[in-house]
Amino acid sequence: MIKNFYIFRHGQSSYNVEGRIQGHTNNSVLTETGIEQARRAGQLLTGKNIEIIISSPLNRAKQTGSIVSETIHTPIRFDDRFTEVNVGVVEGMHYTKVQEQYGELYKQWRSSDPRYADISFDKGETKRQVRTRVFAALNDYAANSSYTNIAISGHGITLSQTLTALGVEIPEIPNGAIIHLQNDNGTWKFVGFVN
Prior knowledge:
With 195 residues, the protein is α/β, with parallel strands linked by helices. The protein contains seven helices and six strands, in the order βααβαβαααβαββ.
């Protein structure tokens, strides 16, 4: 049986505008532009017969998921497994400061080169750990839920790492973008962006 997963990145947040690294930081909220991007995501998902929205519990994803939920009149619930990557000691720091203090490590972290899948900032997660965590959740919903059309409110790194695991290299996922995945009896396929 084919199940559809529509995974969207939260709308533009205050930290996006300020140029700060978010990770698990939870005091970043949607800007006016971010609210508009969330509304647009809801419009794009209208008519997709979404039965449930599952959201990261972080405020920026929660806000986005709630706006989509209101737009398409679908219930929302939260799952920690879709939380953004934990970037440890650099959470909340401005990108320029991170580049100054962690030059080479930051370059490797931003790289899509598979050689760097197991590096992390101190007290943070690796990209491989993110993929493992996200796919544990996706496989769980694919195998153990009765839903056939699921929307997920997530984050930039969790989305890009989901695609990386499927052999698709798109390192920068724009705010409000929606990717469409299908699961056919355990086999995942990237269908494309919803736009």
